[in-house]
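User: Good morning. I'm curious how adenosine-5'-diphosphate would be positioned relative to this chain. Could you predict the structure with it bound?
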Amino acid sequence: MKILVSMGRGGTGKTSFVALTTKYFVEKGELPILLIDSDPDQSLADALGVDFEGEGKKTISELLVETFIKGGGTLIGVPPSERMESKIWEEGLYEGEHFDLIVMGPKWVEGCYCLPNEALKLALGNLAKNYRYVVIDTPAGIEHLNRRITARVNDIFDLIDPSVKSFEHVARAYRIAREVNIKFDNFYIVGCFRFPEDLGSEVESRLGLKFLGKIAFDKDVEAFFLSGRSLLEIPENSPAYRSVKEILGRAGY
Ligand SMILES: Nc1ncnc2c1ncn2[C@@H]1O[C@H](COP(=O)(O)OP(=O)(O)O)[C@@H](O)[C@H]1O
Ligand SMILES: [Mg+2]
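Assistant: Good morning! Here's the predicted structure, ligand included:
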């Protein structure tokens, strides 16, 4: 099992990157895949053409509230993480043809309840063992690193735009990931669709991190987003998809 995480500032294409990465794994037959949307904005389901609520699924936030706040104290003897895990299997897991999806939802980001958070981490850890790949979409910024939903990831893909803020973001994200003790194998930099290719080597020398390439600007991505079509259906030769394939190839996938 491998865990991949997309990170970066708002609008850099984190969600598109996760969706196109999913397409890549699906096409290579590298299944099963679990996607986790940890952005309270909840846009990953849309990018994949999934009507999460319409499918009758509940976010992790809702399940945490039901299990620990409203229903507290019931099911004595069942460890909290097991209660949480079975809730997720029953009500929180969207099971699609090509991938499964969990949505964290807003409350999880707002509140900090230690017991539920611990239970959730254990539950997610257990659940993840059933998959070949777990791909996590994150909110903009780096605050979410403090509430890590997993202490161990394989590859972080930090998407950057060509701004000073973006460079600062990467440097801070890298530092914080280490401070909060998230174990990762690789912290990669990926240029977003607004990034000039020739800045790649500068990124490497300024940040001391590996630059995997940039995602090409792609009008299809825009159009798919607007129409709510799944990015899994984007044409094989679409520029953004081709660059994601190259980037993942360079990361060893
Ligand atoms: N490769 C691309 N080419 C053109 N537009 C893109 C590309 N990737 C993303 N976008 C556009 O940028 C916007 C933000 O993308 P998104 O993946 O939601 O970013 P984030 O998750 O970082 O906020 C979307 O509306 C999308 O249309
Ligand atoms: Mg997003």
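Residues 14-15, 39, 43, 137 surround magnesium ion (ligand 2) (CB under 6 Å). The CA atoms of residues 153 and 184 lie 5 Å apart.
Let me know if you'd like a different ligand tried.
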